Automatic annotation (TrEMBL):
Pfam families: MerR_1 (PF13411). It comes from Actinokineospora auranticolor. This is DNA-binding transcriptional MerR regulator. It comes from the Bacteria. Residues 1-68 form the HTH merR-type domain. Keywords: DNA-binding. CDD domains: HTH_MerR-like_sg3.
Amino acid sequence: MRIGELARRSGVSERALRYYEEQGLLSPNRTPSGYRDFEESHVDTVRRIRSLLAAGLSTAIIAELLPCMVDTGEGLAPGCPELLPHLERERDRITASIDELTTARTLLTKVITTTPPVGAC
């Protein structure tokens, strides 16, 4: 199928699909005239990519993990136990970011609540 069809079926823009290809996440065949020729399996691959992106993973990490990820019917899971440290490291990174944002929100709330009433300046 051509890129437009994959975009329609996966709900992802053609631009994003080209980016996924540049990042090594998709590998379509090429027709003699140079058009991308995607397989049916690429629809599921794009859905897996989107799921992993939504989980906060970068495309570089996804490129490493994607070949070993399996769909359990309830979501994606690592098909190889050696992927767990990668996933745990990413979860820890996200947790640290959440903690930093929570601290920033708390400080901003303090600034807002200690601001003098309008007209006091």
